[in-house]
Design goal:
The structure is a homodimer. Chain A starts with 8 loop residues before the first strand and ends in a 9-residue tail after the last helix. The model of chain A has no long low-confidence stretch (mean pLDDT 94). Chain A has helices at residues 46-50, 55-62, 73-82, 91-97, 118-130, 144-156, 166-171, 173-181, 195-203, 211-224, 237-256, 272-286, 304-307, 350-357, 368-382, 388-407, 425-432, 443-450; strands spanning 9-10, 20-22, 68-70, 87-89, 102-107, 135-140, 159-165, 185-189, 228-230, 263-267, 293-299, 309-314, 323-328, 362-366, 412-417. By secondary structure, chain A is an alpha/beta fold.
Chain lengths: 459, 459
């Protein structure tokens, strides 16, 4: 094992790190459908979007043609604090599985936020600061995105107001406290600080909140306060652009050793990690330069790709955001209370949705208990305690590797290990105690929420 | 900043990593005093120690002359999973402080156990496995050592029985659950599984346990079960030997860039991190090849070096372990309930004690609230959320850097960042809420526990 020329971990030197993000849309023949104004049904203009988002981020959101965006030096300096993230050759896992497959994973958990979210958080905070804004607002559920944004704003000295779903605020005091370390104000949602919050509290006095409500409060706060904008950690085109740093680093590292993956696997919630990981490889495929299998892994409890419809829908349950065309289960779909909180989104990135519709990607679902079993097996041989979200990709990669064991094929598998599970130990405890169940929505559940999709005329 | 030739993080390649541990004792003129049998007052023999510890570890414990111990290939392979740890140039902290000083830190928190403890855990587990043992026992307080040992045993397929102080077992279910992920059995101490546990429960029915009691239970379990040995995560000579990997990597990384530190700083509890970090540099000083200032940083609440006595004492409060000569506050000393759990040990490594007695090191104390303020300042500019223990070194390094700002000196400072604070957020919360106090023992407190030191005749 140790004689192998490929090290356990491939780190890039600073001068090997990417200097530009790659915009996958530039190489797509069928561009992702534009965001629509829910009032008029017309594509959102830059001017409309700039009321909510930073100017430069709107430009990035709408640009389907520019292939590369230079990463500003300040963001590259921040990236140097926790990047390059290691590309790990999973020698120990391969040995444990007895597979001829070669497994690599890109580990994005080596930072205090514990996930890849920081890659876009620093970019969005940077452009807000560069525009002379005072601060940003956002929502957070489990808290990973809120933590990442807090770190970025703490570094830049930008005010950060986080609306945290009330039940998480109360059940995850540690997450809340990390955000306070970085200087953010954290408000349990619904709150009395916004009109939408007051209205919901009057209507449902005992409510513990929802992500949809927290989004609405964050947007209202951004719009109501001069010098503030709203930021979002997934789904958007701009977020996938920033996250391309994951795939770019992976590709540079693999190219150094002449390794070409056969299969690339990522978990898929809103799509930011998967979109970032596959970006440069998918670009090659779109340009006809190379071929890869891409596999999106969804939880059985929230199967947007595999059981959703490709249609225009609201991004938020509160229905205040623009409409996006995507694979969706309907914005009123309520996934079971599974432990991969980051994958419980009803829709999917418009970019990935178009690629999936055009046949460039596959998608599968996995069961929660099997995901935790894979996570534990992985932790024992590779050392890292993975987040439940990331463990969906682990499970799929292990299954592919075991298939290679049957067939004798020496395939090369690359998967994204998006984060660590230090704040998910309640879930691990339930798994150990045999209290964890698998949850699959019925066809009726899905049909019911799909029946409420907004009616949109497409050209 | 970015033009500077020294990168933000220096990683060694696999072939630059140390292949042997360095035994500081080989270069000490005054060797550390031997462990004594508390019954006879005579030095512990290898045979006596082998009833409790693995044979190879006893050899390492007693060897004051061999300068280098080869690191077995299996341990080197395990190290590759999470090492080399990055040596970070703290550009952002320097800029924030406006200091001409150059600050480096060696970050040992990039693994699931969250600290440097894993460096010795894998070594101790490996030798137990190589000796054909079935398993190991240990105690854990806050849980870092227990987690590290669980990871090592999970990897090697060795049984691991952890006695966890009952109040931690109940208050830190997450730590307990991480150990279960890695396959360890975790027993709240005191327990009904040992004679000493039963006795204590009979005497103090409602007790929430103590580290001293957990040690006693772990030792009894190891001795009572064929094929089991007891392992310990700090204080011992063997542990400092394993931890020398921290200093060796640091020195190789600095040498690559022609950097020589002026001041080397580490927090000091039992001394394993500090001893490991300074090892190769102290070796140079002992051989007269180079000079450095070494600073041990203690909490004001548990000042072994600065207010203790250099004398023989029990390593454990239960008084079942051998006597060690060390700076001690007395084994009956009860430090205030400060949040740096890893620094609440009444004594100090015999190696470091001898070096301090001989004038090769300095020691200072810092106040808890100042430590947390420094931790937060550090987190915001360097990104990493530090453990309270590690933050003692941060505080001291920042103070030295600010002194350079006054004098205009461009000193180079190296400090050890031993771990992350993900499981210490209750402490951060108390700090944010202004509920944290500083605790300094009175002279009477210390005199009282020192009066109970065992009477030992030294030659």
């Amino acid at each position: 094992m140790s004689e192998n020329k490929i090290p356990y971990k491939i780190y890039l030197s600073e001068d090997e790190m990417p200097t530009a993000w790659y915009n996958l849309r530039a190489d797509m023949k069928n561009k992702p459908a534009p965001l629509l104004n829910p009032g008029t049904g017309q594509p959102m203009t830059a001017q409309e979007l700039e009321g909510v988002f930073c100017t430069e981020l709107v430009r990035q959101e709408l640009d389907n043609d520019t292939a590369y965006f230079q990463i500003p030096q300040e963001i590259r300096d921040f990236y140097k604090m926790y990047r390059p993230s290691p590309l790990v050759r999973a020698y120990c896992l391969e040995q444990k599985l007895g597979t001829p497959a070669k497994i690599y994973y890109k580990f994005e958990g080596n930072n205090t936020s514990g996930s890849h979210k920081l890659n876009s958080a620093i970019a969005q905070a940077y452009y807000a600061k560069a525009q002379g804004l005072k601060g940003v607002t956002t929502e957070t559920g489990a808290g990973q995105w809120g933590t990442a944004l807090s770190m970025a704003c703490g570094y830049l000295g930008l005010d950060c107001r986080v609306f945290m779903v009330k039940c998480s605020y109360e059940q995850k005091p540690f997450r809340r406290e990390v955000m306070r370390v970085y200087g953010s104000s954290v408000t349990p949602s619904p709150s009395e600080t916004t009109n939408v919050g007051k209205k919901i509290l009057a209507q449902f006095p005992g409510t513990t909140g929802s992500l949809g409500c927290a989004i609405s409060e964050a947007v209202e706060t951004a719009v109501a306060n001069p010098g503030y904008r709203y930021v979002l950690g997934s789904v958007l085109n701009q977020v996938l652009l920033h996250q391309s740093v994951i795939g770019l680093e992976s590709k540079i590292a693999l190219d150094k050793y002449g390794v070409k993956p056969d299969i690339i696997i990522g978990c898929a919630g809103g799509g930011s990690n998967l979109g970032g990981l596959i970006a440069p490889f998918m670009g090659q495929k779109l340009r006809g330069e190379a071929d890869y299998r891409f596999i999106a892994v969804e939880p059985e409890s929230c199967p947007s790709f595999t059981r959703g419809r490709y249609a225009y829908d609201f991004c938020d349950t509160g229905m205040v955001c623009p409409l996006a065309k995507m694979y969706t289960l309907g914005s009123s779909f309520m996934p079971a209370a599974d432990h991969a909180g980051g994958l419980r989104f009803h829709g999917m990135s418009s970019i990935l949705s178009q690629l999936y519709a055009d046949g460039y990607m596959e998608a599968i679902t996995v069961k929660q208990t099997e995901v935790f079993a894979a996570a534990e097996e992985f932790a024992r041989v590779e050392g890292i305690l993975p987040a439940p979200e990331s463990s969906h990709a682990i499970k799929a990669a292990m299954d592919e590797a075991l298939r290679c064991k049957e067939t004798g094929e020496e395939k090369t598998i690359l998967f994204g290990l998006t984060g660590t599970g230090y704040f998910d130990l309640v879930a691990y405890e339930r798994f150990h105690n045999g209290e964890m169940k698998n949850n699959s929505p019925t066809d009726e559940d899905i049909a019911k929420s799909l029946a409420r999709l907004p009616v949109v005329k497409e050209d």
